[in-house]
Structures are given as structure tokens and as C-alpha cells.
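Box 4.2: Ligand-aware structure prediction
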Amino acid sequence: MADRDGLIWLDGEMVPWREAKTHVLTHTLHYGLGCFEGVRAYNTAEGPAIFRLQEHTDRLFRSAHILNMKMPFSKDELNQAQCAAVRENNLDEAYLRPMVFLGSEGMGLRADNLQVHVMVAAWSWPSYMSPEAREQGIKVRTSSYTRHHVNITMCKAKANGNYINSMLALNEAIASGCEEALLLDNEGYVAEGSGENIFILRDGVLHTPELTSCLEGITRQTIIDFCKELGVPVRERRITRDEVYIADEAFFTGTAAEVLPIRELDGRVIGAGKRGPLTEKLQAMYFDAVKGKREANKGWLTLVNG
Ligand code: PMP
């Protein structure tokens, strides 16, 4: 990733990709106190556009606020930086990674007066999973790792350190022949995937865990918005893992994963064992929206070329 052409926005200016470096004593590298976003740009008829940019930037600022990191740039500057990262790397479709991290002015937990740095990288990352996964669904296992407790790490922050838990769960799932992990909260209720929110459909009602230990997903909200339009009731409530086993349909949502059907959990086939009709419908609405094909949702797109 580090050795390639291109430009990365770092602390207010574009720097050559290979020169966007930081010192080994970077505080965030040691203790994980930092926050980031995962954002996507899609090619639309009017040119590349970032999907729900403002919502991502707002969440980044909320994360920084929770972690007590003072943002040295405005939201407007961050929005412009993200557009520039796509535009100046000549990308049609892109994954964007804004990150806020602490510098190397001091070491140790008590270090203070650390500089808050901000970077934005953008690169092309066509599909998070195989194209078949989008149609056939993925195999998931319940993780042996518990999702964060709301008072251990801050779950409303998309904090760097929170992802140790995600990686332990994902690596375990992959090592056991699955494609994703389902994490339960500290009381044993369904929380989310390693980097996705989860929905299940039962008897025409869509259910998703309430926002306690899972991230306030922007794709999750998009799906809830679509369901309002479709007249599909959505309940945010506690879900047990065996409710996923007996669901008619289940799917993950996330900026990287988009809308991803789940065909199996812990060796139990879910519904018909493939993408269900509502999942297919919501997936189609999602892809149309991100590509600017839904007039009603054009407000979610920010054209990078203005
Ligand atoms: N949960 C976790 C832990 C995540 O990392 C992500 C990805 N940001 C999500 C849920 C989905 O969030 P979004 O739809 O905003 O990408």
C-alpha cells in the first residue's frame, strides 16, 4: 500500500503517496487512541461522487469529540480534502480513509500537548467481498470474542483501538472457514459484524440491534430510510443469535461490505440459504442510490468535481 504513485492529503496539503509517513513514536501507533472513517465514492453519470460524505465527516468529528481530540480542521475543510483525494488521484470509484491521530511529541499515557494530525487517502477498492458473495451470501460464525462493552471502549466512536476486537473476531472466523464473524455484546445479544451492522427479516418485519455496542452505521441508516419508503416495518431491539438462525433473511450493511446477504450462521442455513427477496430489493436500491440513479437520494451524493 505504501509504495505507489498518488497523493495523500496530510495536515492540510497534498503530499506524494510514498512520502506520507509518520514517526515510529507516533502516539496512536502505540496506544490506539485515534479515529477514522471508511467512506466511498462511486462513479455516477455526472462524475465521481462521495456517498453520504457529510454524515461520515460528522461521525468523524463526533468520534474525535468522544476521544477528546481537538480537530485542527473544520468539517468543510475535511469534506473538501476528501473530494480532493478522489479528484487528484484521478479515481472514478474509491474507498476513502480519513484518520485523526496523535503525533510523536511525547510518549507514555500521560503525554500531553500532542499534535492532532489528520490524513485522507483514497484508492480504488472495487469489492470488499467476491462478487458471488453479493448474490449467494456469506457464511458467518458467532465469535468467541465479545463486542465492546459500552463503558470499556466508546462504541459511538469509530476509534482505531476498537478494531483489535474486530480483527480478532474476523481472523478467527476466516481461520474456521467462514467469511465474517458475528459478535455478541457482553450480555450475549447480537451486536454486529467485524465491520458491519446486521439486519434480520422475520415475518415481514426487519429487525436490527439497537444502538448500544454497535456502531451508528451510515449504511444501516440508509437501509432504515429505504424501508420507510417501502413500507417495511423496522424494529431496533435486542436480538439473540438463535433468532438469526430462524430468520427468513439476514444481511450485513457497511460502507465497505455494502449490502451483503448472510446465508449461514454457525452451520445453520438461514431462510432459503441464499439472498432473499427483500435483501435483493434493498441491495438494488442501495446500488442505484450510490450510483446516482435514484432521483430522491441525489442529496446523498457529493460530486468531487463540484
Ligand atoms: N460496525 C462496524 C464495527 C464498522 O466498522 C462499520 C464500518 N464503518 C459498520 C458497523 C458500518 O458502518 P457504515 O455503514 O457507516 O460503514
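In the box above, the bound molecule is 4'-deoxy-4'-aminopyridoxal-5'-phosphate. The chain is about 25% helix and 30% strand.
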